[in-house]
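Purpose: get a first structural picture of the assembly so the mutagenesis plan has something to point at.
Setup: two entries, given in the order below. No constraints added.
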Amino acid sequence: MTTRELWGYMGKILRVDLSRGSIVEEVLDTEIAERYVGGSGFGAEFLYREVLPGVEWDDPDNRIIMASGPLGGTVVSGTGTFCLVTKGPMTNQAVTTQANGFWGAFLRFAGYDALIIQGQSPRWVYLHIGEGTAELKDASSILGKDTWESEDAIREDLGETKMMSAFGIGPAGENLVRFAVVAGDRGHVCSKNGSGAVMGTKRLKAIAISRTKRSVPIFDNELLRAKSKELDYQAKTAKGGLLDKWGTGGLFSTYALAGTLPTRNYTTNIFPEHEEMNGEYLRTHFEHRNKACWGCSIRHTKYIKVTEGPYEGYEGEEPEYENMAAWGSVIGNTDAGGMVMLTNLADRLGMDANEAGWTIAWIMECYEKGILTRDDLDGLDMRWDNVEAVAEMLEKISRREGVGDLLAEGVMRASAQVGGDAPNLGIYVMKGSTPRGHDHRAVWPEMLDTCVSATSTIQSGARLTSPALFGHPPVSDPFSPWEVAGANAKIDGWFVFLDSLGICRFITVHPQLTMDCVNAATGWDLSIADALIIGRRTINKLRVFNFRHGLDPALEVPSPRYGSTPTDGPAEGKSVADHFEWMKSFYFELVGWDRNTGKPLAHTLESLGLAELVADLENRGPE
Amino acid sequence: MAQITLRIHRMLSEGAEVESPGLEEIPVSFSVGENLEHVVRRLATDNHTLGDALYGTSGQTIRGGILVVFNDRIINRSEYAAVAPQDGDEVTFLPMLDGG
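Result (structure tokens, whole complex):
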């Protein structure tokens, strides 16, 4: 272990062993901080070291690592963010999944850069971290409560009257729904690869952190303030200030016009009702009040009250774009109020809106085609647009009740069990991961990224504009396999690096200013090129982890429906399937992986300072 | 004279604060035989804001990062130059977006 003075870090890690009921503080190794920075990087390092091949997602020896980074809890906007890393049940491989809110900042104020959870508690507990204290508390009275109720119950149990952030699981996580989430701060979610089910196996209901008074030691406070202001301005004015004004839902109609709005389980690419459901509509027709994350000046999320239609009077969080897709166009729902209600229901039950949306839409198509009947679906009339039936089905899934037990496995596994044509209708990656809420048949960079990612969600983050941020020409032909693979490879590492910082991605719109903030906080002198290397180090470490845990690159392809050709709409006739294998191989080659097997090449690992992984990779994984 | 409708996403007007994420519609007259590139180029020459939004500083070709949708179908920029529009056609320019 190396210990030198570290600016931008609290210098400690909290380790909780639920089997033993022990809680210990560990010193943060300086070398780990320098090599992996924080968040996703810390998670990758600890997961690799401590979760050995043969440990399955539901094994007590699996770890949950929740980490902030050097910007967490600083004056920079949107730095309540943290990254959760574990081995998740959708893929039985690694996942890195981020959430915003307050938790990441409060973890740092409590004196820690990361929290590592291991073991399995004999009874349901929650963890409370306060001023110089950390203790496991009985959670039996909170069981069954949804993610919002849990937060209130914990606050009451602790008698906490000041600020507190709690992230935990709802009924879906308790019942090991494979796509359960870890959610907190009313609407912020670590959504990918069933992190909530992992927490459920550990019988850990939530982790609450009270706001304490420590501050993050900063190398150059004045410089950080100045650079933070500049970055803030860039974030506020990005996309014409759209995020500030209409939230992520401001993109809903634009996606509809570009053919990327997923509609009725990808059976069509046309959703004419988009203007009655988009961000502008919600903010001009419904009531709102502000809801900000830690120190954020954009405040793109809101609380909302529905003021018209069958759900008039319903109050909750305003849907983000992906909620709008899942509970709007994906299931053929055209009622904005219903979309708000379903968004809140899924979040509060504690399940991923993407996978839940694909699962419900798949049932609806199966129902329409007679593959599943009303009897198969516990009497529910699962026709498109039936919001009430969807709500009942979500409840059943969260409790694994009736057909909900099958659906709690997610689309891939449920459709395999139904058999026949059913697996051909589901939207998933063949290795089990969940696509985000877009029609990727019109966004090939993200489909490629979703399939090959080592993070169980997007990894390179490449859509179509991203290369321009780094001085590369933007993609000119979004359906060119050559350009798509190249765009992803060029910026590979950047978004994973961002996930190591403890900051919201919506703030980091300007790469150089982001680096300026990191350097002001830490006293380092990292360039954008250095950041890409750090991100790629994390990606490659996770990639080797996944191979050691059974990754089969032949399964890094879209399911038949996910990779199908749109039959109408703006991307009609564009066939990604014709190009996918070539695009994938070319991408592998560009990022220094074997063109055929997808395994990182020895010289790639060595160039990233991961020479010790070469032997590991040779010893495990499919040939 | 024949007419097409050019629809441009407001977010493409770089630097401008977007009041609404919608489209601005501009009717454009053209002579039969003109290709789409000629029609849009002529309009962009007369309207510098539009020209900057579509062609950027180089002014050579429609800049990267813009999605061209012709009559509700995405077309590649290479195809775009050769399209011969008909009366009543629509061409939409959208930003290739990320986020959400």
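The first strand of chain B starts at residue 2 and ends at 9.
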